[in-house]
Amino acid sequence: MKLAQKILIGGKALVELGSSRSTNDTDYLINDTETNDMFIIDEENNIDYLNANGNKFFNEIFSKEKGNKTASAQSLFELKAFAFVQHCQNFKFQKVADCEFDLKFLSINFDVESAPIVKKYISTNEYLEILKIIKSAKLK
């Protein structure tokens, strides 16, 4: 695996931002030009790599965050919105609930109110669900 740069994403990145929901695994966004695999799993070290070379959405986020050690709150929101949709489609409801928690955390604490990058990669109805989560987080 060719790792010129890795950007911390996922639960560990959210904990760095102050989230109370922790996770045992570590996730990085990379751009491994030696493979088109979208996901690369290092089971021995419990690390998941999302490969920008294997996915246009990941590539767009990687390009935006290039040079950063940890993804911004906005990019973490975009990635969580994408994961939310994928977990819904795969009926992984605990992961859906975890993503919703993370989306609300980012919306409340970092004033994230939209996800313009992920909007290009999901359906209108899926994006409306993301907007509902934002709205529910902003209710006072």
General form: globular
Q: Count all strands and give the number.
A: 4
Q: For the terminal residues, how far apart are their CA atoms?
A: 47 Å
Percent of residues in helices comes to 40-55%
| Low-pLDDT segments, ≥5 res | none
Number of helices: 6
> What count of structural domains?
1
Structural class: alpha+beta
Please report which band the strand proportion falls in: under 5%, 5-15%, 15-25%, 25-35%, 35-45% or over 45%.
5-15%
Description:
With 140 residues, the protein is of the alpha+beta class. It has one domain (6-138). The protein contains six helices and four strands; from the N terminus they run E-H-E-E-E-H-H-H-H-H. It has helices at 10-16, 56-65, 73-89, 93-110, 116-119, 124-138; strands spanning 6-9, 26-30, 39-42, 47-51. Helix 3 (73-89) packs antiparallel against helix 4 (93-110) and helix 4 crosses helix 6. The termini are far apart.
Brief account:
This protein is of the alpha+beta class and 140 residues long. Helices cover 51% and strands 13% of the residues.
